[in-house]
Design goal:
By secondary structure, the chain is mainly α. It is built from 14 helices and two strands; from the N terminus they run H-H-H-H-H-H-H-E-E-H-H-H-H-H-H-H. It has a single domain (2-296), classed as ABC transporter involved in vitamin B12 uptake, BtuC (Orthogonal Bundle), CATH 1.10.3470. The chain has a two-stranded antiparallel sheet. Helix 1 (2-15) runs parallel beside helix 13 (251-270), helix 3 packs across helix 9 (170-180) and helix 5 (77-102) runs antiparallel to helix 11. It is globular and about 50 Å long.
Length: 301
């Protein structure tokens, strides 16, 4: 993945020298921050053998609810952010409970929750953006630190913590075992139900937080926030080597997959390709990546 990423960057830099500039890479990094935060929770869930299609809608709901708490209820920024994250965590808990306790597949559960969360966002906002936000609400994402906005540093910190947790903690190893063989995990004494519910809660909380970060950057909350994010993060995880059946992959690989997709899309934009084709390109890249992953898996058996 890393070699493919470098090769793609070199190719686009050869076709257009403006692509390989420092400012271009800064734009690239800032652009993937919000889906990157969502990707952390989604990737952990996929490793455990589950999937969450509601992440984009929960991001929208987190953005709208936090924006309303700031603009109408006049709550302090820190309190509004915490409550917004808790709302996302609650939706994650509902997803997890219905999936692992009631037994409805996560694809169906989270698809239904996607419509519910998105509908609530439109109802709460009345279909209009929530603005103006109070002064100071932009500090969460806009504060400049070493030439980069604070949202970038927040994402990198969250990613490093999650990556080390997955690699080095006991619970991180349990996630792989649950995704690889749920029955064996249960027989070895792992609380599979509790672990998966925790991962769903984390996914919901991070999704809501991503929406809040974007709200802070744009200085408004919009119900269309997060539209299509679920497809982006799932595609990134698949391209980065996370098994769709669970039990394999890494956060580092998922991150490289996200960067790779963003590099391809940004490179095509720089080359003047019609932006209406970008979704089709993402689909083609995802299919190719999954096909290569399955081919590699079958060759190693």
């Amino acid at each position: 993945m890393l070699l493919t990423l470098f090769g793609t960057i070199i190719l686009f830099a050869f076709l257009n020298p403006y692509f390989a500039t420092l400012e271009s890479f800064k734009v690239l990094l800032v652009t993937l921050v919000y889906t990157g935060v969502v990707l952390i929770g989604e990737a952990l869930l996929m490793i455990s053998g589950e999937i969450d299609l509601s992440v984009g809608a929960v991001a929208s709901l987190g953005s709208i609810s936090t924006g309303l708490m700031l603009s109408r209820w006049k709550l302090p920024l820190a309190l509004a952010v915490v409550l917004g994250i808790c709302l996302g965590a609650f939706f994650g808990f509902v997803n997890g409970y219905i999936t692992v306790k009631i037994g409805i597949p996560s694809f169906i559960t989270t698809l239904s929750m996607m419509f519910l969360a998105r509908g609530l966002s439109y109802v709460l906002s009345g279909g209009d953006p929530v603005y103006p936000l109070p002064d100071g609400s932009g500090t969460l994402s806009r504060t400049q630190i070493l030439g980069l906005p604070s949202s970038v540093w927040i994402f990198l910190l969250l990613f490093l913590i999650a990556d080390q947790f997955l690699r080095r903690s006991v619970f991180g190893r349990k996630i792989y075992l649950i995704g690889g063989n749920k029955v064996a995990a249960r027989l070895s004494g792992i609380n599979v139900i509790g672990a998966k519910i925790k991962l769903f809660i984390l996914s919901g909380a991070l999704s809501s937080f991503a929406g809040i970060l974007l709200m802070s950057k744009l200085q408004r909350a919009d119900a269309v926030t997060g539209l299509g994010w679920e497809l982006v993060v799932i595609a990134s995880a698949a391209v980065g080597g996370i098994k769709l059946t669970g039990g394999g992959g890494s956060l580092a690989g998922a991150f490289l997959g996200l960067v790779f997709l963003q590099v391809v899309l940004q490179g095509l934009i720089v080359l003047g390709v019609d932006q209406r084709l970008l979704d089709a390109v993402t689909g083609v890249v995802m299919i190719a990546a999954v096909w290569l992953a399955f081919r590699k898996s079958s060759n190693t058996r």
